[in-house]
Automatic annotation (TrEMBL), chains A, B:
GO terms classed as biological process: gamma-aminobutyric acid catabolic process
Catalytic reaction list: 4-aminobutanoate + 2-oxoglutarate = succinate semialdehyde + L-glutamate; (S)-3-amino-2-methylpropanoate + 2-oxoglutarate = 2-methyl-3-oxopropanoate + L-glutamate
Keywords: Aminotransferase, Neurotransmitter degradation, Pyridoxal phosphate, Transferase
Protein name: 4-aminobutyrate aminotransferase, mitochondrial
Database matches in SUPFAM superfamilies: PLP-dependent transferases (SSF53383)
Superkingdom, taxonomy of origin: Eukaryota
Name of the gene encoding the protein in the UniProt record: abat
Gene Ontology cellular component annotations, sorted alphabetically: mitochondrion
Enzyme class label: transferase
Cofactor: pyridoxal 5'-phosphate
Biological role: Catalyzes the conversion of gamma-aminobutyrate and L-beta-aminoisobutyrate to succinate semialdehyde and methylmalonate semialdehyde, respectively. Can also convert delta-aminovalerate and beta-alanine.
Keyword Transferase: yes
Gene Ontology MF terms in the entry: (S)-3-amino-2-methylpropionate transaminase activity; 4-aminobutyrate:2-oxoglutarate transaminase activity; pyridoxal phosphate binding
Length: 446, 446
């Protein structure tokens, strides 16, 4: 197998490029590179390909003449939506709205979604604080020069290990890698510990419950402390599974209690499903595993949903137009693709498929870590959203490169974790192919 | 003429919606609403439609089978670009790179472009400060918890009246309207006055030069003051014409001196061409009117370019991969459309067309303000990027609604300004149609 690298003078981040791809030749779960190498792809463009490469249902969107206009005339959705936009929203995003959520706002990407979700929470919080009265003259005057009270000292509580994006607001809640954060100014916002659980979860129920209790206590302490500091917590943001930070899980009980803490202290509760959403955990939203009717105030999404955006409860609707606004406010052409993805998910019962494949994958990872305990540990997952740790980062990286040379393309996260992010059309026979290659690599590993 | 409004339960910002559109039936400079009303559109989706609705060249992109894959397989560009991506960049974005700029980074939207441009300047500035050494242990440790020195107290200097986007980093440099800023936490960054010039510029050369000198002096004072405060200015961000803030112009001399001040104080100079870029001023980039070989360190774009992104000088290239990164890093399908737009601009000499139409438009606006001096004043513009002020906001809004009912759709900006943002295929006969309708409205105005 050969790997061709190309230094392109005008490209900025060539250092991060793994290889160039032939997307025309890629199909389903298989990614093809420019040299014709065909790989089982379980990283899927950082978890953003929902039903595989070149899916016929998506190709059909392109060839339907009724759709051409949505691609060539990108509207300013906030002011001049296309006639069919409400219907398209109803058949796409609103058909999968999380429990209790009646509103959705599309955005261009995950970071913009979280930035605007934060703003929605700040606006809601300040409206509560001022009793829904008009802003004072002082607020109006100071906001234009970035000063309090117009630009208030509010904060968002986040968790160590979290990843919520890399624009400046999002980045103040992201704490997964130094390379994301270094040299970028930030906000003095509270950061709580995320539970460090022991796996398999079933074997460490008591220890894990203790760890989660410790973290929840810290959350409440931080909320009180930041209120005293004059920087009240307007919202809490959390991933159902910390993804970039190393696939860190917590129990439904932890999230239920955290949601209650948010309610008790008057903070909005924002569940960031940018990576976990879209069916990969076996439910459409990972937070559905918590079993709550009122799981959150805000749920943000992107990646597998093909458009960014966020849902929120009615109560968080901004009081005036143009408070949440930008030129494009999303992209209706992405909604067309999403509608088709949802049709395929329903027609082919893909969430059941994910649950089945996920069980096989996790069982296989358990078997591998039993067979290679000096190399692998901490297999964990929900649906096909699985991960396993190597003994160190060099070993992890070496396994990944060897696997790639045998036709398996995986992603990493955290310090020494391999993460599995296959499509929703990842079947049990793909699991076996994955496990066979991984087993070959491990058997050869010195 | 009737206007149908629809309250959609799942749409967030219904209050901002002007009307629903029939984009299929819209053509060239004419936007058609759901009731079949056909309007000459000189707002063009907030200045983001480059060559008109349903342009045949863009329709062809959709029907070319070679392009299907770019739409249905959106890659993670930073790690797995398509084979043809460097070539596509060379024939699209790099073919129009501003003078002195060899690097381009695509992004999904204007805000993300500016957020990442700011980050690029912060990284460059800190690398200079630490003499290109590795970060200290203290920096590595503190950055994960949002604290200095890892997250340093650096600032971006912006101008009163500026608009650079509405995510939290961008919003700290935006100072155009209260509704953008209220209730959102911000950074203590310096804000300089933008020159308040008198129009027509030719008639107030001396007064305007004095006003510009006053603002430049203030810029230098702020740079010194913020350095003393421990929040050094890493970059200066400015629009060549303040758009959202009310179409405020400044002279080439002002920008040349500002660029020199940035250089003298070691600050990066970031020209935000999100609204001014793409040919509407008669040159592809508005900063070309300054006549500089080295106009800026960073130039950001979006809207008419169809993709967001920013150019920068080689020197601002981040030292490591993954420092500027996100899942999608733009969207190659947008680059396909941009290539075609550029072909059309070249083939049809559209920049000359814009210059010609722009002259006719500005002359016409001068005539109108002479005829209706109690209603209109301060006509100004470059190319077709023109504007005129009404005597107050109520009058402005009333003129706009009456014009819309006569088939002319315009946008507003600032407090009482009408802004003209036609496509690049806006010909002299469109100008006359516009002026006729406007004249009719003004003649009837009480």
């Amino acid at each position: 197998m050969t790997w061709r690298f190309c230094l392109s003078p005008g490209l900025q981040n060539v250092g991060a490029i793994h290889f160039f791809c032939n997307y025309e030749e890629s199909r389903g779960n298989y990614l093809v590179d420019v040299d014709g190498n065909r790989m089982l792809d379980v990283y899927t463009q950082i978890s953003s390909i929902p039903i595989g490469y070149n899916h016929p249902a998506l190709m059909k969107v392109m060839t339907n003449p009724n759709n051409v206009s949505a691609f060539v005339n990108r509207p300013a959705l906030g002011i001049l939506p296309p006639e069919n936009f409400p219907d398209k929203l109803i058949e796409s995003l609103l058909s999968i709205a999380p429990s209790g959520m009646t509103r959705v706002q599309t955005m261009a990407c995950g970071s913009c979604s979280n930035e605007n979700a934060f703003k929605t929470m700040f606006i809601w919080y300040r409206n509560k604080e001022r009793g829904y009265a008009n802003p004072s003259e002082q607020e109006v005057g100071t906001c234009m020069i970035n000063q309090s009270p117009g630009c208030p000292d509010l904060s968002i509580l986040s968790f160590m290990g979290a990843f919520h994006g890399r624009t400046l607001g999002c980045l103040a809640t992201t704490h997964s890698k130094v390379i994301h954060k270094l040299d970028i100014p930030s906000f003095d916002w509270p950061i709580a510990p995320f539970p460090k659980l022991q796996y398999p979860l079933e074997e460490f129920v008591r220890e894990n419950a203790q760890e989660e209790a410790r973290c929840l206590e810290e959350v409440e302490d931080l909320i009180v402390k930041w209120r005293q500091k004059g920087k009240p917590v307007a919202g809490i943001v959390i991933e159902p599974i910390q993804a970039e930070g190393g696939d860190n899980h917590a129990s439904p009980d932890f999230f239920i209690k955290l949601r209650n803490i948010a309610r008790k202290h008057g903070c909005a509760f924002h569940v960031d499903e940018v990576q976990t959403g879209g069916g990969t955990t076996g439910k459409f939203w990972a937070h559905e595993h918590w079993g709550l009717d009122d799981p959150a105030d805000v749920v943000s999404f992107s990646k597998k949903l093909l458009t960014g955006g966020y849902y929120h409860r009615d109560e968080l609707q901004p009081d005036k137009p143009y408070r949440i606004f930008n030129t494009w406010m999303g992209d209706p052409s992405k909604n067309l693709f999403l509608s088709e993805v949802l049709n395929v998910i329903r027609r082919e019962n893909l969430l059941e498929e994910v649950t089945r494949s996920g069980k096989a994958l996790l069982q296989g990872l358990y078997a591998l870590q039993t067979q290679y305990p000096h190399i692998l540990s901490r297999a964990r997952g929900q649906g096909t959203f699985c991960a396993i740790d190597a003994c160190n980062d060099a070993t992890r990286d070496s396994i990944m490169i060897k696997a790639r040379n045998k036709g398996l393309f995986m992603g990493s996260c955290g310090e020494k974790t391999i993460r599995f992010r296959p499509t929703l059309v990842f079947k049990e026979y793909h699991v076996h192919q994955l496990l066979n290659i991984l087993n070959d690599v491990l058997a050869e590993h010195k």
